[in-house]
Amino acid sequence: MITRRAALAAFSSAACAFSADAMLVRGLDGKEISIVPGKDVTVVTFISTQCPISNDYNDRMSALYKDYSSKGVKFFFVNANSTEPADVVAEHSKQAGFPFQVYKDVNVADKLDAQSTPETFVFDRTGKQLYHGYIDDARNPARVQNHALKDAVEAALAGKPVANPNTKAFGCTIKRPRRTS
Amino acid sequence: MKILILFAALLSAAPPSKLAPVDELTYGKTVAARKGKVVLVNFWATWCVPCRKEMPELARMATKLKAKGLELITVSADEPEDEKAALTFLAKAGIAEPAYLKRAKNDDKFIGTIDPKWSGALPALILYDKAGKKVKTWVGETDLKALEAEVKKLL
Fold this sequence. Notes:
The structure holds two protein chains of two kinds. Chain A contains six helices and nine strands; from the N terminus they run H-E-E-E-H-H-E-H-E-H-E-E-E-H-E. By secondary structure, chain A is an alpha+beta fold. Chain A has a single domain, classed as Glutaredoxin, CATH 3.40.30. In chain A, the strands form two sheets. Chain A has a seven-stranded mixed sheet. Chain B is 41% helix and 22% strand. In chain B, strands 1-4-3-2-6-7 form a six-stranded mixed sheet. Chain B has one domain: 3-Layer(aba) Sandwich (Glutaredoxin), CATH 3.40.30.10. The interface between A and B is medium-sized, with 19 and 19 residues. Strand 9 of chain A pairs parallel with strand 5 of chain B.
């Protein structure tokens, strides 16, 4: 039996067999890693190369990453669209100038029941989901009134609850692979 | 007489010249006002590729089934400054009125009012029966043949 702590120790290595509950993503180099919320404040955000709403948040996501990764927050930006292969994701990341890695999804979108891009989840240091929903409440930065993700990360760092733990993540649908039953 | 009927049909299929605002307070009334008809509400935006792709087919379905009691309502989730682009697209896609522009005071409430399980992702289609009761929600790219079959069951 592999414990959560052990899983964290192997965070960046190929780690596809921790448990049935493991949330897995694949780096653009093809290596699978497991997302195990619980030690650090963890943010999982689903993004797209093609969704204009997601792309409107590129600068905001980069700024949040820069501001909070230095405070120990772990960020996972995940592309779960079957229509956007790894090479397209890599090129998009380069063009967008992302300071963070983007991963291809293995099972995280299904585990978290993510539906949209952009859509974000924040976990506190106990691994509890603290927030789920939009990054903020307006596509146009000038109209933002609720900086929900930033506020949730601040709350998680401070060990406080989030006033509104669920918001509606407006944007494009995640294009999951078609499955036959 | 036939010419008059054709003219009337053309008039009724006129593209919208303006998008009426709809919010969390008026959405329910908008659907309820059409009791007696099967209502299909299409949430879309000019930036949404699958929305644009399915729109001409939705327009064809709406035209074909209008006389049997189907009313297609489109609600654009575009920003107010994109209303002109939305109108241009609707005209090109063959979409007639009623056409709305989402002007929610609170997006969460607006989306929750429509379907609590809907995340707000586009495209989304909501089907109501003749009593105004929500029957089904489709989110994302939709099999429009299956959707048409569901619509026909209610007509």
